[in-house]
Specification:
The complex is a heterodimer of chains A (about 425) and B (about 180). Chain A has five helices and 28 strands. With about 425 residues, chain A is mainly beta. Chain A has a four-stranded antiparallel beta sheet, with no helix packed on it. In chain A, helix 2 packs across helix 3. With about 180 residues, chain B is mostly helical. Chain B starts with 8 loop residues before the first helix and ends with a helix. The relative contact order of chain B is 0.10.
């Protein structure tokens, strides 16, 4: 055994010595650029090209197993230009129902059982039940908002932590999709509290985000392998796989209400927009400050405002900035939050009117009116010193549920003030 | 108990970046080498190490105890290597395959052959055993630290090493 140990040491030492100190200079620069994205713009570009130059290999490998994948090379070069134009309104936004200031009033709070993290929340379409996914214990609780009691506990069959939950639209007992850390998304019948379907990722690094459109048959799931899957909930078939061209983990997915467009944000500050009918990449946005760094876009959300050609897409990033893009023109229309002292935006949610936008940070939630582009309110509970990990608007635009990484859920009544 | 970052504001960001850059200068090379031993490919290893350092930078505000920085980085690298999807293995354009250092002589050739044989045998072991062997025989970490890095018990470390060495011994007798 001694001799084996010696041979092992020699082999490791010899192999390790092949990595010379000089050979990691580029890595050193890439890391330095990632640490200071603003100051070293040139190095950042180098870091990005170092990574982008490698995207071809994973895509080639993935092509064999994907149902639908298109590398829209003509779109990729657009990543190189950050489309930062403060052009103001694109003109695509119709008037909101009432252009009055938003305000939030604290209603109540409750805590998930055990040592929990509120990873994700969703209201039923009727607004009577709030589903809260525990990112630690792998349980999803259904809360009755009238009695403020748990009416059901759905335990992850694989025992994995819950990453994301979403209710399918319509029906009195809607289905609930729960994506977990094992790369599985379970579809629960909330009436019988039974799993009625299981969707499994290829490669199991875990689901990061799940989303429904208004069309109850289409479910999107994004994963840490950098892939977004489209499933048909009725036939339980995989209909498309969309692979992030930069190979980075998907942090968040969102569908337009019509379900025709899907956006997936990634860990490197890129957002890819796909046509769900064709599976084609139609647009790629780069976070103006964060693209190419490792603290990227944490959350994306499509506004539900109907726009003939495109849609308003909001993205919240690690700098605490919220960007709005118009997918029809491909233009950045607004930067809602200046980079600053408030910490990164971990999660975003649009209210059902498509104008109220909530952004969760450490210790507070900012509420914006995207029509007036004014910050409407900052929702902070006294002594609330935890990271906001999940947000959900009730179907009428109120309440807003705010979930944190300490297992607490806060409910806020959201109202529009009369002028 | 949550501790906020000891440093805040613009100056704090600078200090954090300096701290991480310093850790890379000090430990970057050995971590890339560890990742090469676990993935067999320098480009992949660099990706994993880049992820680990920038992930560490992001996690800094949540990490109270900076004494554990190296353990944290080491664990991130090992976990990163484990989750490298085989299909995701990347080839860096222009990346030159390892050249043999030209020391000449048959001794070098024999040593290289033995190294290949040993590494090939290691590659046939389960992933957990490969991780433990690399931490033990490349980084020379004590059992306690290996156990802490991988989140397993000290007993698991010791029994895995003993089983792995037996398997290697058996395997290599046939190869040499």
């Amino acid at each position: 055994v001694n001799r084996i140990e010696d041979r092992l040491r020699d082999a490791y030492t010899g192999e390790a010595a092949m990595v010379t100190p000089g050979s990691i200079d580029r890595l050193s620069e890439a890391i330095a650029a990632g640490l200071r994205p603003d100051r070293e713009v040139r190095q950042r570009r180098d870091a990005r090209s170092r990574r982008m130059s490698r995207v071809v290999a994973p895509i080639a490998a993935a092509a064999a197993v994907t149902v639908a994948i298109v590398l829209a090379t003509q779109v990729l070069p657009r990543l190189a230009d950050s489309q930062h134009s403060q052009a103001g309104a694109s003109g695509a936004l119709p008037k909101p129902p009432a252009a009055r200031p938003l305000t939030g009033t604290f209603i109540t709070s409750f805590k998930l059982p055990g040592n929990a993290r509120v990873a994700s929340m969703a209201f039923t379409p009727s607004g009577t039940i709030l589903a809260t996914g525990d990112g630690v214990a792998g349980r999803t609780y259904l809360w009755d908002l009238a009695t403020r009691k748990i009416t059901a506990t759905l335990t992850d069959p694989g025992g994995s932590a819950v990453a994301s939950v979403a209710f399918g639209p319509g029906s009195s007992t809607p289905v609930l999709a729960v994506g977990d850390g094992n790369g599985r998304t379970y579809l629960w019948d909330t009436a019988t509290r039974k799993v009625i379907a299981t969707f499994t990722d290829q490669g199991s690094k875990g689901v990061s985000s799940v989303a429904f459109g208004d069309n109850a048959t289409m479910l999107a799931t994004g994963d840490h392998n950098g892939r977004t899957y489209l499933w048909n909930v009725v036939t339980r078939q995989l209909t498309a796989i969309m692979v992030n061209p930069d190979g980075q983990p998907v942090t968040s997915v969102t569908l337009t209400p019509a379900g025709n467009q899907l956006a997936a944000s990634d860990d490197q500050g890129h957002i890819f927009v796909w046509n769900t009918a064709t599976g084609k990449l139609t647009e790629a946005f780069a976070d103006p400050r964060r693209a190419g760094t490792y603290a990227g876009v944490n959350s994306v959300a499509f506004s539900s405002v109907y726009a003939p050609r495109g849609a308003t897409l909001a993205a919240g990033d690690a700098d605490g900035c919220v960007y709005l893009w118009d997918t029809a023109t491909g233009k950045l229309t607004e930067t809602l939050v200046r980079p600053g002292s408030q910490g990164g935006v971990g999660v975003l949610a649009f209210g059902p009117d498509g104008f109220a936008l909530a952004a969760g940070r450490f210790g507070s939630t900012s509420l914006w009116d995207t029509f007036t582009r004014q910050r409407a309110a900052t929702l902070t509970d006294k002594g609330h010193n935890y990271r906001v990990d999940s947000l959900a608007f009730g179907p009428s635009g109120s309440p807003l549920a705010v979930g944190d990484d300490n297992g607490s859920v806060f409910l806020w009544r959201i109202t529009r003030l009369t002028p | 108990v949550r501790q906020s970052s000891p440093v805040t504001g613009t100056q704090g960001h600078e200090a954090e970046a300096d701290l991480v850059a310093g850790l890379f200068r000090e430990h970057g090379l050995s971590l890339v080498r560890l990742a090469v031993l676990l993935t067999g490919d320098q480009a992949t290893a660099e990706d994993v190490v880049q992820d680990a350092f920038l992930g560490f930078h992001r996690a800094l505000p949540r990490l109270g105890d900076l004494d554990k920085a190296l353990s944290y980085l080491r664990a991130s690298v090992v976990n990163g290597c484990r989750s490298v999807h085989r299909g995701r293995r990347r080839v860096q354009p222009g990346h030159v395959e390892h050249d043999l250092p030209v020391v000449s002589a048959e001794a070098a050739v024999l040593a290289e052959q033995d190294r290949r044989a040993v590494l090939a045998a290691v590659a046939r072991l389960p992933v957990r055993a490969r991780e433990i062997l690399a931490l033990r025989y490349y980084l020379d970490l004590p059992y306690e630290e290996i156990a802490a890095t991988l989140g397993v018990s000290k007993g698991t470390v010791s029994s895995t090493i003993s089983r792995a060495l037996t398997a290697l011994g058996r395997d290599l007798k046939e190869d040499v």
